[in-house]
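INPUT
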Amino acid sequence: MFTPRPIGFLKTPYTGTKAIPKGLGARHDAEGVVEVLAEFEAGLTDVDGFSHLFLIWVFDRSQGFDLIGTPPCDDRAHGVFATRSPRRPNPIGLTVVELLRREGRFLHVRGVDMLDGTPVLDIKPYLSSVPENTLRRGWLSEVEQRKPRS
Amino acid sequence: MFTPRPIGFLKTPYTGTKAIPKGLGARHDAEGVVEVLAEFEAGLTDVDGFSHLFLIWVFDRSQGFDLIGTPPCDDRAHGVFATRSPRRPNPIGLTVVELLRREGRFLHVRGVDMLDGTPVLDIKPYLSSVPENTLRRGWLSEVEQRKPRS
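OUTPUT
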């Protein structure tokens, strides 16, 4: 395996987990900044050309994990690998963000949903999408049918 | 930070990196199996309802990293965070796969692009796509314009 090390940290508007929009119809249009450490700045070369990026980051204020848990938008329990719960065997988060602009080692992005100060492990280009009409979203679709989006 | 531990391992058709389709127009329709360790099987509850999953895994046979490198499909160098190179500061891989079926702790999936025996760190549901018409793909689009997909 390997020893994770931060390649940077996230500036986001969220200082507590309660403030992060969750559940059905949650809009993730909050803006934030990925502050890449100076020693890794060269790795950002040409990242500017991509409209969207994957951020892989650490739930650094989450402790332990639950294999089964009840997400905030449902009253039924689901397996951790069928949810985005922070309490995971490896506390790794994944977020797709829109790249608004790059200023040196600072990436201004839209769509952050993690706490301010979150360590970033990796940035990858978002290359293609699964066509929406082929997606099935399991228990989440069932919840949406019971509680229409507001 | 945290100490990564495998939640399972991947069975794929690829025993060497040369065999993995790479570059432009690479089709990733190879089938494989995520073998989740028995101790984590309960975490798969309800995963069956999702058509697509994110697999987060480890480039366990990659050593070291390059901040700038030349991908197989281009003759120009790019920053590691603008490519899918295995030589990353944190050797983490990310693949979207289609879930074909679940048999207990075994997930049969399509779209694997990693070596046989690769350790898996996390599985997450794929919930929504960025609309294709809003995607910009930087240097990759430039390469495609020079060398049309076959």
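end of record. Residues 138-146 of chain B form the longest helix (9 residues).
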